[in-house]
Amino acid sequence: MSQRSYLDWNATAPMRGEAKAAFVEALAIAGNPSSVHAEGRAARRLVETAREEVAALVGAQAGDVFFTSSGTEANMLALTPAIEIAGERRPRSRLLLSAIEHVSVRSSGRFSREAIEEMPVGADGRLDLGALAAAIGKVSRVLVSLMLANNETGVIEPVAEAAAIVHAAGGVLHVDAVQAVGRIACDIKTLGADLLTLSAHKIGGAKGVGALVRGRDDIHFPEPLIRGGGQERGLRAGTENVAGIASFGAAAAAARSNRQAEAAHMTALRQRLEAGLQAIAPRAVIFADAPPAERLPNTTLFALEGMKAETAVIGFDLEGVAVSSGAACSSGKVQPSHVLAAMGVPAPLRRGAVRVSLGWSSTEADIEKFLGAWRKLASALSKEQRGIAA
Ligand code: PLP
Fold first, then answer.
1. What is the pLDDT of residue 332?
2. I need a labelling partner for 69 at 20 to 30 A (CA). Which of 47, 75, 332, 345 fits?
3. What spacing in Å lies between the alpha carbon of 241 and ligand 1's midpoint?
């Protein structure tokens, strides 16, 4: 394939060199981390080192990190009425979610559908804190799930403010930080999160590894998600994915030391991208591009009226540029964006939303290639629209 530009980092990031090296080194270790012999202990060391690195990335204790098979599984583990906190064993009665959560949270974990309540966001994509306070005042023992940054728009949510409201009402706060970690500051204590979800492949580790992190050690899950051999301190049975976990640790260490430089790099590239995008098509709308909304440094979600996202994504692909339409996480199916709907974006514009997401190894050449492709697509669209009008 000729030089392609991969600009779909919110779907997944390429593996970091450090993570690949850790993965390959781990493959050479034969032991099972639960075995007591030297080979087993070597595998255990890799898992525990990775636990420390993942904990350090979010300012947590290693003993509060539980590895899972994905961010999705970590969300599933967190969202249960059976969470015990500070000795409170009565089940959580309700699950409050923002209207823009990832599908793995929207599917509500182990809560019944009747126990869920969705909270609105404003036109800027940020949670309506007044609505949270009102909803939380009506029920006791709630679990609230709020993402730190949205996977489609990149909008950063007011998590610390939400935490204050949730805790004042005796609730528990789960934060899906899958898209945010490694891109913006993500300290579990500063955020006030009781539980935090992470995924290795978004920060340059292997696919198929995640973690649920506790913000305090008096949170317990009496019902494991997977029963069996008692791995991950009884929370998640099954022999650990040692190589994947080792790559997660290495990626976490790299993300932690490079975060600020990488964020500055992505911000500069994105400024060029957005300026070029609107210079070529002044009617193009970039979602949540004005204060008070703050976005991740790497994400641009844009639309042009009359443009179909699926056609645009194929057009970019033919020009050698990988982008996605809204949330491409799941199936390759184009579904109307629940995020833009929640922000009150009209349907015709929603249908045309294309997401461009950058990463640490994105280059100016990638941006120029994207803009070259956009020039062609926007001009073809405008000819087509003139044809229809004539
Ligand atoms: N949460 C968010 C915000 C995501 O964007 C994703 C994946 O795109 C997930 C959770 C799921 O993570 P994983 O792919 O590791 O299951």
1. 57
2. 332
3. 18
Which amino acid is present at 25?
E
Active site residue 186: no
Spatial contact of 53 and 203, defined as CB atoms under 8 Å apart: no
pTM of the full structure: 0.96
What is the Å distance from ligand 1's center to 181 Cα? 12
User: How much is the CA Rg of the chain, to the nearest whole Å?
Assistant: 22
Pocket test for ligand 1, best of 15, 202, 209, 245 (most atoms within 8 A of CB): 202
199 CB-near residues (< 8 Å, 6+ apart): 70, 71, 74, 178, 209, 210
DSSP 283: T
CATH dotted code for 5-13+259-389 = 3.90.1150.10
Residues 6+ apart with CB under 8 A from 144: 95, 96, 97, 132, 136, 162, 166, 171, 172, 173, 174
In this prediction, residues 87-106 reach a mean pLDDT of 96
What share of the chain has pLDDT > 90, as a percent? 90
Given a cut of 90, whether residue 387 has pLDDT beyond it is no
The rounded mean pLDDT for the chain is: 95
Q: Is 37 exposed, middle or buried (0-12, 13-18, 19+ CB in 10 A)?
A: exposed
Please list every protein residue whose CB sits less than 6 Å from any atom of ligand 1: 70-72, 102, 104, 147, 151, 176, 178-179, 199, 210, 329
383 CA → ligand 1 middle, Å: 38
User: Is residue 172 predicted with pLDDT exceeding 50?
Assistant: yes
Q: Are 87 and 209 in contact (CB under 8 A)?
A: no
Please answer whether residues 302 and 284 qualify as being in contact, where contact means their C-beta atoms are separated by less than 8 angstroms: yes
Mutate to test the pocket of ligand 1, among 54, 72, 324 (most ligand atoms within 8 A of CB): 72
Q: Mean pLDDT across the stretch 118-144?
A: 95
| Fold entry, domain 17-253 | Aspartate Aminotransferase; domain 2 (3.40.640)
272 pLDDT more than 90: yes
Exactly one of 329, 339, 340, 377 is catalytic; which is it? 329
Per domain, the residue ranges of the chain are 5-13+259-389, 17-253
Count CB atoms within 10 A of the CB of residue 382: 14
